[in-house]
Amino acid sequence: MPKVVGHRVVDEQPQRRLYRLTSQGRALWTRRKDLPLGVEYRRILGLVDYSGYPEVIRSYLARYPGRVVDKWLTEFEARHLIESIAASEVSLEELSRRTEPPPVEPEDLPNRDAEVSYADISLSGLGVYINYERIPNRPQIFKRVEETLALIVEDDPDQRALAVLRLTTAGYPAETADGVQSCLAFLKQRKPDAIFLDVGLPDGDGFDVLARLRQHPAYAFLPITMLTAKREPEDVAKGLALGADGYVTKPYGKNTLDYVLRYMMGQEVVGHADEGAPASS
Fold it and tell me: How far apart are CA 90 and CA 164, in angstroms?
């Protein structure tokens, strides 16, 4: 709601909230190996312990509608297992530099293994995989193609120029970064609408960048596609566990980035990727 200060109109942003475990919730989470806790308890307590931002929790539970996750959080707060507190704005530099994925419960492992298997088949045959579980429950984005800014994080100048050419030919504005630090510097100045992220960067690892972004509430649902030559199952599994929305392996077809970005953004898909439609999980 806008607020008038003197002669200026200032947009008041809602106070950001953060969940944390109460002493009772902490006691349950600490003794989770000794107590018969249900999977819902372990999911919510584990994610609140990992990152209490509700946006981050919804992102890692993206296979469930946001209203369902919010209901769980409300119920756990009513049971005095978690509590909501005011949180100050946080920068990417201030975030913990944890690079491990959030906890995964044994009941969820078969689903994760199946997802990795589908991704492996899709990447081997098509060079494209979209994590369909994350997309339907993402907050809607209403932007036209020409308003959708894509950031390409790629150190190889030829690959960088090719990605820019593919996107701008399709009508998307594109900016670039050649490494981890230049990516973080760009994000301090401007937030893109989507990121294509290489893994092997000269000053760091793209997976580490993904992990840090997904722990920040402003980037929890930002469409991020790994754009890489790495297609080993363990690499794909790591990217999916950290919250990648999709994979494109190099080399890729002329329309691949356009197709993936349109799908990620909920824009009209005018054609399939050159290799065909990505496999669904």
Answer: 31
Cα–Cα distance measured from residue 60 to residue 218, given in angstroms and rounded to the nearest whole number: 14
Would the pLDDT of 60 be above 60? Answer: yes
Q: What are the backbone dihedrals phi and psi of residue 150, each rounded to the nearest 5 degrees, phi first?
A: -105, 135
For residues 200 and 228, is the Cβ–Cβ distance under 8 A? yes
Strands 200-201 and 204-205: antiparallel
Average pLDDT of the residues in 88-107: 79
Give residue 281's pLDDT: 39
How confident is residue 80, by pLDDT bands cut at 50, 70 and 90?
very high
CA-to-CA distance for 112 and 25, rounded, in angstroms? 26
* Domain 106-265: assigned CATH number: 3.40.50.2300
Are 54 and 74 in contact by the 8 Å Cβ rule? The answer is no
Quick one: pLDDT band at residue 1, thresholds 50, 70, 90? very low
| ∠ Cα 195 208 52 (to 5°) | 90
Q: Tens of pLDDT along 148-161?
A: 999 999 999 999 99
Q: Give the predicted TM-score (pTM) of the model.
A: 0.86
The closest of 261, 248, 260, 243 to 207, measured between CA atoms, is 243
CATH code for the part of the protein at 11-86:
1.10.10
Q: Are 44 and 72 in contact (CB under 8 A)?
A: yes
Q: Where are the domains of the chain?
A: 11-86, 106-265
Tokens 């906890």 belong to residue: 103
Distance CA 206, CA 226 (A): 8
